[in-house]
Structure formats: structure tokens, C-alpha cells
């Protein structure tokens, strides 16, 4: 009786605020439609214990209910994500809709390594089922907008290496090298001598194999190493899709470490996801909470202003900033499509919970980039204090 009343009240409230192409089916055969057209999404509530997730439908609660099997959902993935966002937006109080401030994570090397292995060491076969063949796991660059994913990923790598003006014989450190695509390209096309570091054992193994297969073992070294433990100096440093794991509090130290690894006239690229909340709060509606719990434990996103500020604090001068938000919406959209297309194979390769987490995270991130909840910025920087006469007059060199 108690739940029936609550549910009735909730159904009336949602219907009053928005027409949604949604059907709700209860365990007892009751069903509710929320729109004038036929429903595109059906949410099935298997028993009364699942109702609390629905009655407080933040993205964290809806996501948890789906991942833990407390709710079943049918429909196209994009429509599901739209409906989930509409439910969260219509049901949450203004206070709970606001960016969410979590307690910063404690970033010991051990905890960070565990967090990386949780996300990246699922299996290489799993990632092969939705990434491009080079397995680049960061925002691609669709220069013309109509490239396929593999082309756009290669263009992204070339865009980065051109922006930081890699020359034959340069030494290059790639912090968070993933499966090795950037160091391979830097060696093959630009003639650089590279070191790539990762905390993922699977990435380390496959990247090492790929370097060997390319006959580049003398030119590229892949290490299973925390960036905080790298020694020496390099002409060029890249960090692509990695600094999201560093932690807001650690950003000055992270940039100071890059500065100490860079030669005086060197150049570095920091490419990563940024928060669009000026105070570096987490994505609204509970999206950030879901990501912290299930997808990227230990992940934290700074606003671009905090990136630039902490970069300067760490002894680096930002030279050039480019926002690639549209590109990441498209990249995640393609990953999500690939994931759907390979769903049967992926379900056999991982457990149901993992399947559900990655399914909603990939499509949800595409939506979040699309709607300016999060963004992606590339920043070229070098050691502070260099002579102005050594800086380029324009950005033209980036497009040759
Ligand atoms: C999203 S992946 C990006 C991989 C690659 N740069 C790409 O674009 O495909 C993030 C990478 O950062 C690495 N990483 C995260 N924290 C690290 C740390 N403290 N030290 C070294 N690598 C780290 C992970 O192991 C992973 O390779």
C-alpha cells in the first residue's frame, strides 16, 4: 500500500512534467505509459524491492539498478539514455541536480594501480570489440567530420605529434601509453625514440608485442611503470587520456613532474577530459557518482581553468588550447555503436555486470560530451620562462 501510493504520486509527477516515450511494467502486471506516442523504452520492475531506485531516479540510482539487475530495460540505447536523463532532470531537486562534490580520492601508487587494473585489465579481446584496430582509447580527431574511427584516431595522433613538433631523433615520453599506438606512430612516421609507460599489465604485454612485431624494439621501450617513477629528460612528453586518473589535488605535482622530465626547450601535450563546472565538480544528475563507483574509481576531472592554473604552478607555460568536445561525443558514440553491434560476443567474454557497466558508460559519455556536461581539451605547453623569440608567430604549422 505504502509503495503503491508513492508510485502513483511519482507517476503523476513525471506525467505532469514531461511526455516521455516510456512504458513502466510492474511485477504484478500493472503498466504505465508516459507519452502520447507508442513507447520506445520499456522499464521492467521485477519486484517491489527495486522501486526505490526508480522513485529517486538520479543517474547514479538508475545506473546502479541496471548494473545490479534490479531493473530490466528494453529499447534502443540512445533512447534509454535520453529517458534516463529526462527522469533524473525531472525528478531531482535543484540541489541534487547540481554538480556533485565528492571527497577527493587518496592517490597512493598502490590504489591508483588497482584502479587502473580494474578498468583496463578486463581483457585485450574485450577492448578489441569496440575500439579501432590500433586500440586507441581516447578522443579521436575528425578533421573533416566524416572519417572512420581508425582514420580519425591516426589523425588525432598526428595532430598531437605535429602540434608538439616532433623531429627525427627526438626522445619522447608517452605517459599512459595504452596499447602503444602513439609511440608506434611517433617512431614510424616522425623518427622519434620513445618510452611509453602504463599501469595496465595487459596493455604492457600487447604494446610490447606490437613494438616487437613492428621491428621497433630498438627505438621504443614500453614500461609497466607509474609516471611518478620515471627518471631522465625528454625532448617531448605526451599524456593522452591519462591525467583524469591523477586527482585534482595532485595536479600541481603532476605538471611539476612533467616539467622535470622535459628538456629546457622541450614541448609537451596534455590531452584529457575536463569538467565543465567552474569549480571542477562532478557531472550533474548523479552521472559522476556512477562513473566513480563503477567505471573509473579514483578518476577526477578538473575544469580547464584549473588545468591551466596548475600547469603554471607546476612550472609549465600553456601555449595553445584546443577544445575537442564534439570529437569526443562522436568517438564515444562510435564505441557505443560497436559495443551494441558486438553485444552477443561481448556478453560471452565478460560477466553480465561488466557488460552492463560498459554499455551505459560508453553511451552515457557520448551524451555527456554532446550536452556540454564534460569536455576535452588539448593543451600544448613548455617549461616556463623561455625566450619569446622561440615561440611560433601563429598556429599555421599545426596544419601542414
Ligand atoms: C584512457 S587510457 C589512454 C591510453 C592511450 N594514451 C590512448 O590514447 O589510447 C589511460 C592510460 O593512462 C595510464 N595511466 C593512468 N595512471 C597512470 C600512472 N599513474 N602512471 C602511468 N600510467 C598511468 C593507464 O595505464 C592507461 O594506459
From TrEMBL:
<keyword id="KW-0949">S-adenosyl-L-methionine</keyword>
<keyword id="KW-0443">Lipid metabolism</keyword>
<keyword id="KW-0808">Transferase</keyword>
<dbReference type="InterPro" id="IPR057206">
    <property type="entry name" value="DUF7884"/>
</dbReference>
<dbReference type="GO" id="GO:0008168">
    <property type="term" value="F:methyltransferase activity"/>
</dbReference>
<dbReference type="InterPro" id="IPR003333">
    <property type="entry name" value="CMAS"/>
</dbReference>
<dbReference type="GO" id="GO:0008610">
    <property type="term" value="P:lipid biosynthetic process"/>
</dbReference>
<dbReference type="Pfam" id="PF02353">
    <property type="entry name" value="CMAS"/>
</dbReference>
<dbReference type="Pfam" id="PF25371">
    <property type="entry name" value="DUF7884"/>
</dbReference>
<feature type="domain" description="DUF7884">
    <location>
        <begin position="14"/>
        <end position="93"/>
    </location>
</feature>
<feature type="active site">
    <location>
        <position position="365"/>
    </location>
</feature>
<dbReference type="InterPro" id="IPR050723">
    <property type="entry name" value="CFA/CMAS"/>
</dbReference>
<comment type="similarity">
    <text>Belongs to the CFA/CMAS family.</text>
</comment>
<keyword id="KW-0489">Methyltransferase</keyword>
<dbReference type="InterPro" id="IPR029063">
    <property type="entry name" value="SAM-dependent_MTases_sf"/>
</dbReference>
<dbReference type="GO" id="GO:0032259">
    <property type="term" value="P:methylation"/>
</dbReference>
<protein>
    <submittedName>
        <fullName>Class I SAM-dependent methyltransferase</fullName>
    </submittedName>
</protein>
Amino acid at each position: 500500500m505504502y509503495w503503491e501510493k508513492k508510485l502513483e504520486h511519482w507517476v503523476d509527477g513525471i506525467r505532469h512534467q514531461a511526455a516521455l516515450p516510456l512504458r513502466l511494467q510492474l511485477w504484478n502486471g500493472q503498466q504505465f505509459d508516459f507519452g502520447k506516442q507508442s513507447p520506445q523504452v520499456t522499464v521492467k520492475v521485477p519486484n517491489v524491492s527495486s522501486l526505490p531506485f526508480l522513485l529517486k531516479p538520479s543517474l547514479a540510482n538508475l545506473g546502479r539498478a541496471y548494473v545490479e539487475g534490479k531493473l530490466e530495460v528494453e529499447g534502443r540505447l540512445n533512447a534509454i539514455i535520453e529517458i534516463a536523463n529526462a527522469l533524473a532532470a525531472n525528478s531531482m531537486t535543484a540541489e541534487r541536480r547540481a554538480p556533485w562534490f565528492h571527497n577527493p580520492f587518496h592517490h597512493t601508487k598502490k590504489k591508483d594501480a588497482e584502479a587502473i587494473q580494474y578498468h583496463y585489465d578486463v581483457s585485450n579481446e574485450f577492448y578489441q570489440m569496440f575500439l579501432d584496430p590500433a586500440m586507441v582509447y581516447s578522443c579521436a580527431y575528425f578533421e573533416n567530420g566524416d572519417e572512420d574511427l581508425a582514420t580519425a584516431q591516426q589523425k588525432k595522433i598526428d595532430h598531437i605529434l605535429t602540434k608538439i613538433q616532433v623531429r627525427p631523433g627526438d626522445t619522447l615520453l608517452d605517459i599512459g601509453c595504452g596499447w602503444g599506438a602513439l609511440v608506434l606512430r611517433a617512431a614510424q612516421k616522425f623518427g622519434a625514440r620513445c618510452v611509453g609507460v602504463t599501469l595496465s599489465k595487459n596493455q604492457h604485454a600487447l604494446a610490447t608485442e606490437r613494438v616487437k612485431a613492428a621491428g621497433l624494439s630498438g627505438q621504443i621501450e614500453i614500461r609497466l611503470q607509474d609516471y611518478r617513477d620515471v627518471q631522465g629528460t625528454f625532448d617531448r612528453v605526451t599524456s593522452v587520456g591519462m591525467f583524469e586518473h591523477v586527482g585534482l589535488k595532485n595536479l600541481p605535482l603532476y605538471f611539476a613532474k612533467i616539467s622535470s622530465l622535459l628538456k629546457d626547450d622541450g614541448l609537451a601535450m596534455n590531452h584529457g577530459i575536463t569538467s565543465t563546472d567552474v569549480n571542477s565538480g562532478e557531472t550533474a544528475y548523479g552521472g559522476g557518482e556512477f562513473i566513480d563507483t563503477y567505471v573509473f574509481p579514483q578518476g577526477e576531472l578538473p575544469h580547464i581553468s584549473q588545468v591551466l592554473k596548475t600547469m603554471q604552478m607546476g612550472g609549465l607555460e600553456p601555449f595553445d588550447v584546443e577544445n575537442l568536445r564534439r570529437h569526443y561525443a562522436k568517438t564515444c558514440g562510435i564505441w557505443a555503436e560497436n559495443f551494441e553491434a558486438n553485444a552477443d560476443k561481448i556478453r560471452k567474454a565478460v560477466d553480465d555486470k561488466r557488460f552492463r557497466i560498459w554499455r551505459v558508460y560508453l553511451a552515457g559519455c557520448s551524451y555527456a560530451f554532446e550536452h556540454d556536461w564534460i569536455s576535452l581539451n588539448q593543451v600544448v605547453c613548455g617549461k616556463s620562462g623561455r625566450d619569446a623569440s622561440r615561440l611560433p608567430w601563429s598556429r599555421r604549422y599545426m596544419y601542414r
